[in-house]
Amino acid sequence: MKALLCLVFFMSSMPLPSETPSERDARMEWFREARFGMFIHWGVYAVPAGEWDGTKHGGGVEWIQAKAKIPVPDYEPLKDRFNPVKYDPEAWVRLAKDAGMKYVVITSKHHDGFCLWDSEHTDWDVASTPYGKDLLKPLAEACRRHGLKFCLYHSIMDWHHPDYGTRAPWRGNADNPSPDMDAYTAYMKAQLKELLSDYGDVGILWFDGEWEPAWTHERGIDLDHYVRSLQPDIIINNRVDKGRRGMQGMSEDDRFRGDYGTPEQQIPARGLPGTDWESCMTMNNTWGYSAHDSHWKSTETLIRNLVDVASKGGNYLLNVGPTAEGEIPAPSVERLEGIAGWMETNAESIHGTQPNPFPKTPWGRCTVRPIAGGTRLYLHVFDWPEDGRLELRGLTNEVTAVRVLARPDDIVLLPDDADGRVLLLPGTAPNPVDSVIAVDILGEPEIEAVPFRPAADGALTLAASDAELAGETFKLEDRHGGTNVGYWSAAGDVLRFPVALPQAGELGLTLRLACDDASAGGSAEIRLLDEDGAIVSRQALEVSSTGGWETFAERPIGALPVPARGRYTVEIVPVEIPGDGLMNFSRLVLK
Helix 181-198 to helix 217-230 angle, to the nearest 10 degrees? Predict the structure, then answer.
């Protein structure tokens, strides 16, 4: 058998014909339409449920073998206790479908190497458990009955196989001084051939575990070719190759294979324009089932995450971790049912929509759908305005119709104000989590740049998420409890904000930033530019340590003179950048 498997490895390296942009668009169409899917992490790690030898392990409990460094002979008996007699794939798929999910991605094999189907190439599979039956095929059949795409997660890394190339004392390769990665790759391909031959069309192959040295870029290219030779229309994530940048999940350039990026446990601050991507996230703190992790996200958070992802042009892959008995935990069911209630009215504002055209929507998010003769804007209102005025800042298109999806008759359209259009809303929100207003306009959205203005108390807050980032090194991060500009390491990276100032005078400046000890001592200038781009005033900024890149502090930094009422640009321009970066910038307040 080993010689045959190696033949599979070497024969699979022939390249496939190139794909035209229109062919790629056709292949990716269902994925872009879906916007929402269910991730399922399930395996024998559900038996210990996050606890080993009296120690409870946090984080990803599907990693318990690695966390507790459990030798394979001690880990293998878990299969004798894996008996999911309560498994109901029909109920799982109905739950996903009701919540508006359009595809299901289940772990055929996670890093521990255990397989949820009866594989001819190993006994470390469900056929060797008391349950003894294939877990994947019934789910695939239920997905097809209900119109969902059936998809598979498959780990490249394998802690059980003796020939997997990166060794550890507790792994199955511990006694093998020279693991044969070619033999292991042939084994993996043989298993993938089973899955891609016996389970019908698979929508996505969701690879993972590619980061260890044993897996190389060349192997990623080869595996990508091989999978597409079996199912040419399949979608493959970028973890088949080595290009993704950690949990940000995005490949650095087009040398690396994969149809889409995979941000993990995070949502890109401004999306990833022109790129297909999918944020995978848990409902609590773990992917596999944990008996002691009660840190559940609220239904409100999950709905708003879904909306946030859709408004940025991505997909949201939301995880459940079933028990060893085959049940999706009750808190997961409760939250999915809550999402289903919201989607019953508002699904059209998610599926098949395009990203938000507005540079800023302080009241929530916006998704977009082309309609005959124009565009429908779906305004996702998280914060219902107390005065009933909802501003569409900078919108210049003619508005032809407005309705609240949950309450269609209560909108009054007011004349344009100075910065765009205003909707007058009824007094109470139809849904406290997210009330969706559909606004039909003629043509494609045309949004004029609108300057930021001081609030009623005179304070003008310029947040990282509002900035124009002119440069190539720094970027927005959704980390540290909020959004900040980080990786600010090039002198040519400049932050800019358009502002409208009501009078001459002096603006006191307060900056919220973070900086570690090693990078302290940097400097920058805060500049005020008039409409012709001339500098009218400036203030020096000396960056001192706040104690770390995640430790933010408010720092008063002087003042900017304002010569007259008018429109200006505020710039933050680096002067000297020591260490790893200038600072992590959170906001600048002018008052």
Answer: 20
